[in-house]
Amino acid sequence: MRRKIVAGNWKMNLSFTDAEDLINDLLDTLDEEKPTAEVIICPPYPYLELATDYMEENLFKVGAQNISSFGAGAYTGEVSASMLKSMDVTHCIIGHSERRKYFNEDDKMLTAKVNQALAHQLTPIFCVGESLPEREAGKDKEVVRRQVRHGLFHLDTVEFARVVIAYEPVWAIGTGMTATPEQAKDMHAYIRTLIAERYDEKVAEETMILYGGSCNSENAADLFSQEGIDGGLIGGASLKVDEFISICKQASAK
Length: 254
Ligand code: 13P
Fold this sequence. Notes:
CATH superfamily: Aldolase class I
CATH class: Alpha Beta
Number of domains: 1
Strand content: 5-15%
Strand order of the largest sheet: 1-2-3-4-5-6-7-8
Order of helices and strands: EHEHEHEHHEHHHEHHEHEH
Structural class: alpha/beta
Number of strands: 8
Number of helices: 12
CATH topology: TIM Barrel
Radius of gyration: 17 Å
Bound molecules: 1,3-dihydroxyacetonephosphate
Largest sheet: 8 strands, parallel, barrel
């Protein structure tokens, strides 16, 4: 069984002091509990250095929530993959549905972001997922297929092996409406079928696919025990130490 991954996406939350407190509490508790899952925290940009400074004994890794699709230069307000790499950031969320929706990030831009991340040795956590109307119209798989193909299938096998995928149904994000373990398992299996068709069975088997969307300490064990669910991308519950650690422990139990 592969080591699972639990990544906390803090989104646009917390003051600097609150972030510092949360990181300290996380460090203490992770040190005590020593979950075997790989733990990644993704604070807002201004707190990344705080997180990488506190990154100790491999208790957690640090991811950004976004990167620029450009390399360097006159792009006011942007943060490049090379800057993040130079601060010891290891991962980067790309294509979160909130960025697709509120910042009009399209497939072309996301492809460029994936390329930037890989070129600078950051691990992309590439998000895909359908909206509720798309699911109700029976188009959930079609949407996810398009997102995976356009965002990732230009990569060669070696590059693709460095990507983590997160299936986050948009209707489950921040709503308390978690996908059922069966719905999540079914979509993860579908994504693996697509990967096997594009690459091969071995690559499909080895790809880490996380579930995200109202994942919490109550439902994590059920979700993580499903075949093909390799951990979680956690929003709201990653801001509460007890919740987050409980999820990390549940990912470590399997
Ligand atoms: P919630 O866990 O708050 O639903 O958010 C999930 C998410 O968007 C993680 O990226």
